[in-house]
Design goal:
Blueprint: E1 4-8, H1 12-23, E2 27-32, E3 43-45, E4 50-52, E5 58-59, H2 63-71, H3 76-79, E6 80-83, E7 86-88, E8 97-99, H4 107-115, H5 121-136, H6 147-153, H7 158-173, H8 182-190, E9 202-205, H9 209-212, H10 214-223, E10 227-230, E11 233-239, E12 256-262, E13 267-273, E14 275-278, H11 282-289, H12 296-303, E15 307-316, E16 327-329, E17 342-345, E18 356-362, H13 365-368, H14 372-386, E19 397-408, E20 426-428, H15 441-455
Parallel strand pairs: 1-2, 1-14, 2-10, 14-20
Antiparallel strand pairs: 3-4, 5-9, 6-9, 7-8, 11-12, 12-13, 15-18, 15-19, 16-17, 17-18
Helix pairs in contact: 1-10, 1-15, 2-15, 11-12
């Protein structure tokens, strides 16, 4: 039986839930307070050009993300650059060069390790021992601990930690090794180092993050009769009879009342639904859950989540400036003002962005504290040094974009809430819900799928 369902929040989780529910035959209204869908993975407009609010890498293992993108009509070959699993540093920068060949797993990792440069025999044996033991353990610890402790237990070398495990942990969990969950990190490694070769492929978006899925989802939803209300801030998710006018004919029959405001709903607006998906941030969702005694404990749980920022420094040079590879890993050293962890040559993803480099700084609290001007100068100086190209020290212009609450801090044993809440017909969708993955696009999509299943 078709239901009227409200989805509150138009990020990747909310868009996924809306698509899945519409596909199941329900009538969906998607509310988003911002003017752009995508949440923490979206396009933003600047005074120079449109940019992503952060540079992302996806994995071939992101099966649900890829399925949903196909479903709404995204051409994956055009939208994504597919590269084999790799960790490559600029030549002469003190890093390593590790590239998996296109061979069946686990041979692809073994050959990559044998061919890798910049690692000693001890480093290579250390990685091989880790991979073998983790596979034998099923990529899971009986009791969670920090990634730093995991590295110590597995006798990983200092250099391997610096060049492989630390940057991978920061990129995947956006949490420093000393505070990051070993079990969540192992789940990511299981689907990269320990999975079939195609699952370990690295997928870099060519399209901007809004075009990659949210824009296509909106078009797909609209064509099938769903309603999308951008610029509509939801302030109340209430049970229909609570505080409703007794003569309101819509108050009967549908148990949930949505109160929203904004130009998209003509000022203040109230409507009724059979069910609601809360797909906003932990902060926004907690505020709405506090409106019900039954979900007060859940609201407190979400309020206690700590958050980590991610910063992307965009540096624009002349059109003749380019890198030899689409992206490189960088050795960060905050004590010496080396903040960059990865650099992307945007021109190799989008021909219209010639000369534009994107430098990613995960868990960027200390970097942001330097101030934007100082951070840009430090990152540009880092690039000039590691690539041995003095011209990179002076970009023509720059833009620093920081998502202050990009992810939650993925700490050991973190209790993440279930999809279903104590109130029937009210479910959660977000990368913070129960699941093996950290706060990634794939986890957001999986949560949206789970929320839709709970209401079907």
């Amino acid at each position: 039986m078709a239901k009227q369902i409200a989805v509150v929040g138009g990020g990747w989780a909310g868009c996924t839930a809306a698509v899945e529910l519409t596909q199941a035959g329900h009538h969906v209204t998607l509310f988003e307070a911002a003017r752009t869908l995508g949440g923490r993975a979206r396009r933003i407009s600047t005074d120079r050009c449109d940019l992503d609010n952060g540079q992302h890498i996806m994995l071939g293992a992101y099966s649900e993300s890829l399925r949903l993108m196909r479903q709404v009509g995204v051409d994956l070959r055009a939208a994504l650059l597919t590269l084999p699993l790799q960790m490559r540093y600029p030549a002469g920068s003190g890093g390593m060069d590790f590239v998996a060949p296109r061979l069946p797993a686990p041979l692809h990792v073994a050959i990559a390790l044998l061919r890798s440069t910049g690692l000693s025999r001890e480093d290579k044996l250390s990685l091989a021992r880790f991979s073998t033991t983790a596979r034998w353990m099923g990529w899971k610890l009986a009791a969670d601990c920090s990634v730093a402790e995991l590295m110590e237990r597995f006798d990983q070398t200092t250099r391997l930690i610096q060049l492989m495990w630390r940057p991978l942990c920061l990129a995947a969990l956006n949490t420093p090794l000393e505070r990051a969950s070993a079990n969540v990190f192992l789940a990511v490694l299981r689907d990269s180092l320990g999975a079939r070769r195609s699952a370990s492929d690295m997928l870099i978006p060519r399209a901007d993050l809004s075009a990659l899925f949210p824009d296509a989802a909106a078009k797909w939803l609209t064509a099938r009769g769903a309603s999308i209300r951008l610029g509509a801030k939801v302030s109340g998710v209430l049970r229909a009879g609570v505080g409703a006018s007794p003569d309101d004919p819509n108050a009967a029959g549908q148990p949930w009342r949505i109160e929203a405001s904004g130009s998209a709903v003509g000022g203040n607006w109230t409507s009724y639904y059979d069910a609601v998906v809360l797909a906003g941030s932990t902060v926004a969702t907690s505020a709405l859950l506090q409106q019900h005694p039954e979900t007060a404990a859940l609201a407190s749980q979400l309020s206690a989540f700590e958050h980590e920022p991610i910063t992307t420094c965009y540096l624009q040079y002349g059109p003749g400036i380019h890198l030899d590879l689409p992206f490189y890993a960088l050795i960060d050293d905050p004590e010496n003002q080396r903040w960059g962890q990865f650099v992307f040559d945007r021109a190799q993803l989008d021909a219209s962005q010639k000369g534009l480099l994107a430098v990613v700084v995960s868990a960027s609290t200390a970097a942001v504290a330097q101030g934007q001007e100082a951070l840009v100068a430090a990152v540009a100086a880092q690039l000039a040094e590691v690539f041995h190209r003095p011209e990179l020290k002076v970009p023509g212009w720059s833009k620093v974009i920081t998502e202050k609450r990009a992810t939650y801090a993925c700490t050991p044993g973190l209790a993440r809430p279930a999809t279903e809440t104590p109130l029937p017909g009210l479910v959660l969708a977000g990368d913070y819900t129960e699941g093996e993955y950290p706060a990634t696009i794939e986890m957001a999509v999986r949560s949206g799928v789970a929320a839709a299943k709970a209401l079907k």
